[in-house]
Specification:
4-stranded antiparallel β-sheet; 434 Repressor (Amino-terminal Domain); rod-shaped; about 350 residues; disordered C terminus
Length: about 350
């Protein structure tokens, strides 16, 4: 009985193609002529005549092509169309029952939603950004920092060539204290270690997070790819950052002494001032009178007195024109008591 039912189910399916082919042959039409009238490809007509309806583009095309074929060869198109539907329904049942479920990219129910796609795209971008920053921090070569003390020395110039530059006032010593690094941006990676290479701290600091360099650390140093994203203070006072640009710095000393040495400007050397020549005044010339008293030599012209009332240009009449008078006959003139005895005393000795 089951075999008879299967044969009864398959007979109408097989008879559809046979009936259409026989009707075409009875009408004296070729397959190409039917294809021209129905606008159906000849390969599809062959599939219909051989009852291979599953080879057609779809169920709708299979029913439509069979209906047009039946209309052209003079058969009942409704009966042929219904027979094709029954055949397709019988052939699709075992496929739906036993075919395992597979993922089809074109199935809207199985394609991920737009929200999931956006989340995946954002995650991929975040991974790429993290890889890029890690590459910059660990693999890119470190750039040496410029010396901050050279630029002020080159800019220092004397005020004028003739005058000596005033001595620069001594700067007060910078306040010593704990060295504190404060992150100015979020997720900034930095690593601290001592002179022996032992790690003190390594992490991605959040914005506003602070780290105090241990005071007992021996030769603390730092490595980071964003030296411009940290504010450095020593004892609460700000010092210039390690760099103003995002470059990789490594093995940079960050002790208070090292940071102060980087920021301290060396004083410009003062020019040697020329020795001023003292002006010659009349005071030294008037003070030479005591030296004449000690020297036993005679002078024909006495030096002018230091009194402001006596003119310096008028010569004494007794000393310039007349010979030396005798001490007993000629009275002494009225000049200052310091110069006259000096002129008479040598004359007495000579006599």
């Amino acid at each position: 009985m089951p075999e008879e039912d299967v044969q009864q189910t398959e007979l109408p399916i097989e008879s559809v193609g046979t009936r259409l082919r026989n009707a075409r042959n009875v009408g004296g039409m070729s397959r190409s002529e039917v294809a021209t009238r129905t606008k159906i490809a000849e390969r599809h007509l062959i599939s219909i005549e051989e009852d291979r309806f599953l080879d057609l583009p779809g169920k709708t095309y299979a029913v439509g092509f069979s209906r047009a074929y039946a209309r052209t060869v003079g058969l009942d198109e409704a009966e042929i169309a219904q027979a094709v539907r029954d055949l397709l329904a019988a052939s699709e049942e075992p496929v739906e029952r036993y075919q395992p479920a597979t993922f089809e990219p074109g199935d809207p129910a199985r394609v991920p939603g737009s929200r999931v796609a956006w989340i995946a795209a954002v995650a991929a971008v975040a991974v790429l950004v993290a890889v890029y920053f890690l590459w910059r921090s660990f693999l890119s070569p470190a750039v040496s920092l410029p010396d901050l003390t050279q630029e002020p020395q080159q800019q220092a110039a004397p005020a004028s060539a003739g005058k000596a530059a005033p001595a620069a006032p001594a700067k007060p010593a910078a306040a010593a204290g704990p060295v504190v690094f404060t992150a100015l941006e979020p997720n900034v990676w930095i690593k601290f270690y001592d002179a022996s290479g032992e790690q003190l701290m390594q992490k991605q600091m959040a914005e506003g997070e602070r780290y105090t360099v241990p005071a007992d650390a021996e030769g603390p140093q730092v490595r980071t790819g964003r030296p411009d994203a940290f504010e450095i203070t020593i004892g609460g006072k700000k010092v210039p950052p390690l760099s103003d640009t995002p470059i990789v710095v490594s093995d940079v000393p960050v002790s208070a002494k090292a940071l102060l040495a980087r920021t301290q400007t060396a004083p410009a050397p003062a020019e040697v001032a020329p020795t001023p020549t003292p002006r010659q005044t009349s005071a030294p010339s008037t003070r030479a009178a005591p030296s004449t008293r000690t020297t036993p030599t005679t002078r024909s012209t006495p030096r002018p007195t230091a009194r402001p009332s006596a003119p310096a240009s008028s010569p004494r009449p007794t000393a310039s024109a007349s010979p030396r008078p005798a001490p007993t006959a000629t009275p002494a003139p009225a000049p200052s008591p310091t110069s006259t005895p000096a002129a008479e005393e040598p004359s007495t000795v000579s006599e």
